[in-house]
Every structure is written in structure tokens, then in C-alpha cells.
Amino acid sequence: MESILSKDEIKQFELAKMATEISCCDWSLLEKVALVCRILFEAGHDSGLSGQISARVNNAEFITQSLGVGFDEVSVSNLLTVSSELNVVSGKGMPNPANRFHSWIYAARPDVNCIVHTHPIYTAALSMLEVPLIVGHTDSCVLFDEVNFLPKWDGIPVGNSEGETITKALGSKKALLLGHHGLVTVARNVEEACILALQFERAARLQLMAMSAGQIVPIESTPAAEAHDWLLQENRVNATFSYYARRALRVDSSCLS
Prior knowledge:
Blueprint: H1 7-21, H2 29-42, E1 52-58, E2 61-65, E3 79-83, E4 88-90, H3 100-108, E5 114-118, H4 121-128, E6 147-150, H5 160-170, E7 175-178, E8 182-187, H6 190-211, H7 221-231, H8 234-251
Parallel strand pairs: 6-7
Antiparallel strand pairs: 1-2, 1-5, 2-3, 3-4, 5-8, 7-8
Helix pairs in contact: 2-6, 2-8, 3-5, 4-6, 6-8
């Protein structure tokens, strides 16, 4: 009888397969940013002109959308590259002044290369209750031990004080729930920041539904940590992002132009 592989052995075997069988996304950085805007729009993250997506180009510059352009209108051709002081380096238009806090996060977190800030409905509703996000479902485990909470909010994030506040509240985590406001997710790349934002909103929706029926029981730390690491494997994240990108492109492929 053949020996039965342990769970850890099976996991390592499958991870090795992912590394060879799942290809990385081949879109440019500009294309990925445009795709994230379209993906998040389709997922209900739009709130008029509120919210920003940015991706680090280098230590002094990042890509973001132009103020006045909705998430569903963003394309490669209308994205901006701006300096840490929000001066336009390339492109036409002006960045959202609220992008200033992105500069603070990039300066404090060299591990961060993409920032998503949106006001999706369920996250916004949860933020109004001044209740932290609870990881109580397997899909939400990408956020296990990754979310900090800022219950009180000072106002529009256009000043340096808000940059300091948000960066301090985020700390070393990948996500932040802003009371009476929305979400911030940060990550090593565009793909991961997008997936975290999508799952954040789904987790908030599940939490509000569960709260209406009873008391939520968080997932225990050991299985939650295992699911977190599995779901955030780079190749799995890339495959998930590619799926959502294909969905967005079926709706409208103009974002790549």
C-alpha cells in the first residue's frame, strides 16, 4: 500500500504545481491600474468621484487616476503619473487631492506598491456602526490578522495630518477600515491590493447579514492563518486577478486603450 501523504506534503506539491501551471499576468502596470478601476466598479466600489487607486512607479512617483474620471471611465490613456507632492509627471489632468495620504503610506511602507481606497456600500455601512471587520468566513481569511480599525474620522483626507493618521492606523497591516468612511488596502502589487479590496467588501456584506441573524463567531486562528497563507500565494492571487480582469474586459475592453 502506498504511503498516504500528509496535508503539508500535499500543500507543497500543489504549490509547486501552481508555480509552473499558472502563468503571471502579462499586463503592463498602467493596464493593471486601469483594470483594477474597472474591476472594482463592477464590484460596487464606485462612489462618484470618491476613492483612489495608485501604483508605485518608483520611490518618488506613482500612477493614479485623474480627478473627474469615474472608475468605469478609467483607461490607460487617461491615467496620470504623479510625484509624491502630487505634481503631474505625465498625463493630462489633476490627481485627486486625497491622494496625498498615499504618499505618506508609500514613504512609510517600502513593501507597499499599490494602494486601493474606496467607499463600497457594505463597507461604508459597517463603518457607520464603528464596528471592526470580523473574519468569520473562509473567503475572508485573506484578511485574517491584516485589518486595523480607525473608528473616528477627521474629515476629507487632503492634508498631511490625515496622511499621518491613516499611515499610523494602518501600521504594518494590509488593510484598514476607516470609521464613517471606507476601506484602504495595500499590497506588494496591484493584483493583491485588488483581491484584498474585493474580499474586504464581501466580508463586510457577510458580516452585516450575519449580524442581523445573531452573533458572529470568528474563525479560529490556526485554520484562519492557514487559509490566509494559501489564498495569498502569489500565483493564486494572479490567477484570481486574471479572472476578474477577463470579466471586466468582457463588459468593456476600452480600458486598455
